[in-house]
């Protein structure tokens, strides 16, 4: 009997299943239903495309989710086997546009090794240094799914036309973690969703062992990818609202390379294969669509007339990994 159904096998759906089991819910009573599962690549499945990185420059209203995630990520890493889990840490420098405000520091004190200085990057005010989590997104979601199925969570590939189709025999609760799918899923059809495109260039760069980012009028970042056989480093990116286009563009590759090299010259200067752009080993270029939402994430309990409930948990935009455990914990708390 499937008492709890989770729609979605992205980082949010999988983290919700994890949080349920962490809160003592019997794994055998949980079923994940999803059109796309780890291993798939689709314009409608964001999670495999993420950098992914734990940013401290996230929206203030999401800080409670990111703080919870930061504090509980080591535990998840251990449960997934430590090295090879797809979760790592590294030194990070985030250059941000923000006048110094003691509140800013106070609210982010949960991060280890936190220091704040003046940014040297044009258009940025602060340089925020700390120990960041980094994620090998396709590997992490695959490992998380494997961990959950070992515990006894059921998984079924199914595309739903309406959220109510998720209620199977004996189902009392449905978690709607459909990401961008919330826009079209019958019974939800959330028109506040804003598809938000990003393109990244992935290079092989064993000589880069940190993250370096600038959030000014652009989103420019260099993210070390953990547990990657090819020593991948993600160079990005874009944050294009209302763009649902998974094509990649050569002029955007050039723009990303120009911006990241200007921000972090070591990309070329430390490359043992040569110091020209042509000497970079580009592994792939991809574009993904973030599940943005006007008004921010939706974590909400919807009571149906027959006593059943839907818990909505979607709209993570560009923060699905860094808010994953916190969003899941809040959604699960609505049924405990
Ligand atoms: C280029 C890029 C870089 C990013 N970098 C970062 C980063 O550094 N840090 C960070 O925290 N985040 C980052 N993100 C954002 C992050 O990837 C997303 O916030 C996150 O993946 C959203 O996860 P999700 O589970 O909500 O959605 P998804 O991963 O899209 O999962 C949705 C699930 O719902 C299923 N589904 C939807 N509709 C239906 C239906 N009708 N029937 C059945 N199943 C359905 C899908 O098949 C899928 O399994 C980045 C994103 C992009 C594109």
From TrEMBL:
FAD binds at residues 46-47. It comes from the Eukaryota. GO terms for cellular component: cytoplasm. InterPro entries: D-amino_acid_oxidase_CS, DAO, FAD-dep_OxRdtase. Its cofactor is FAD. D-dopa binds at residues 221, 290, 318. One of its GO terms (molecular function) is FAD binding. Keywords: FAD, Flavoprotein, Oxidoreductase. Coiled coil: none annotated. One of its GO terms (biological process) is D-amino acid catabolic process. Residues 4-332 form the FAD dependent oxidoreductase domain. PANTHER family: D-AMINO ACID OXIDASE, D-ASPARTATE OXIDASE. Belongs to the DAMOX/DASOX family. This is FAD dependent oxidoreductase domain-containing protein. It comes from Cerrena zonata.
